[in-house]
Design a protein that fits this description.
Elements: E1 8-13, H1 28-42, E2 47-52, H2 60-65, H3 70-94, E3 99-103, E4 112-113, H4 116-124, E5 128-132, H5 142-153, E6 157-162, E7 167-168, E8 180-181, E9 183-184, H6 186-192, H7 199-208, E10 212-216, H8 222-227, E11 234-236
Parallel strand pairs: 1-2, 1-6, 2-5, 3-4, 3-5, 6-10, 9-11
Antiparallel strand pairs: 7-8, 10-11
Length: 237
């Protein structure tokens, strides 16, 4: 691990990262590719924690807009993250990586409850730790959960995996003149209203000086390149 810029990372995955070419659900090939890429990084000696979203299964925002109670919708979204965490755990263990799922909502039959010291001990033993069920509270996103867990386990960096190669001033999918930022300050993100992470998550990182790297997860090998220090995506610091 000598020469690598990070010892412990927090990887933030959106639920949509498991969809592949599907509109929803979990794509087996995508899940397998992701597990192998994470395995490669673990083999470098880097300690890996993961926070995963649930948008491929259920999104609380659209449900709330249709009249569902916000708290109920958020709890359903948290349960969706648990499904994704278990799927990722299974994929990782199939490629020989020891993994633990820790949930913010207790469900003893399928995962361990989140306990900070236990999570850190798992990381120290070389296990990949997947944090599920967000913060365990409604009204908080999985972005905020990622920032919170990164602080609690003292991660060196948050790696925000997306479908595009960084942060743009406008949607690059619909605007050919969109400009990609190589570096941003936390205040830039907040003042410009850039969609990196939600404002609570950005504020927490700013207050505690945790850097964020936004990069394209769907280009094979990018995860390993980022943790090795390659200049990819957008750095928020």
């Amino acid at each position: 691990m000598a020469g690598l810029p990070y010892k412990r990372i927090l990887l933030k995955l959106g639920g949509e990262s498991l969809c592949g070419t599907q509109n929803s659900g979990i794509d087996d090939k995508t899940l397998s590719r992701l597990a192998n890429e994470i395995k490669e990084v673990r083999e470098l000696g880097i300690e890996i924690a993961i926070v995963i979203g649930g948008g491929n299964i259920f999104r609380g925002g659209p449900a709330t807009e249709k009249g569902m109670d916000r708290t109920t919708a958020d709890y359903m979204g948290m349960l969706a993250t648990v499904i994704n965490a278990l799927a990722l755990q299974d994929a990782l263990e199939r490629v020989g990586v020891f993994t633990r799922v820790l949930t913010a909502i207790e469900m003893h039959e399928i995962a361990e409850p989140y306990i900070r010291r236990r999570a850190i001990r798992h990381l120290e033993k070389g296990r990949i730790v997947i944090f599920a069920a967000g913060t365990g509270n409604p009204y908080f996103t999985t972005d905020t959960a990622a920032s919170l867990r990164a602080l609690e386990i003292q991660a060196d960096v948050i790696l925000k995996a997306t479908k595009v190669d960084g942060v743009y001033d406008k949607d690059p999918m619909t605007h050919t003149d969109a400009h990609r930022f190589e570096r941003l300050s936390y205040l830039d993100v907040l003042e410009k209203g850039l969609k990196v992470m939600d404002t609570t998550a950005i504020s927490m990182c700013m207050d505690n000086k945790v850097p964020i790297i936004v990069f394209d997860l769907f280009k094979e090998g990018n995860l390993k390149k980022v943790v090795e220090g390659a200049s990819l995506g957008t750095v928020v610091t």
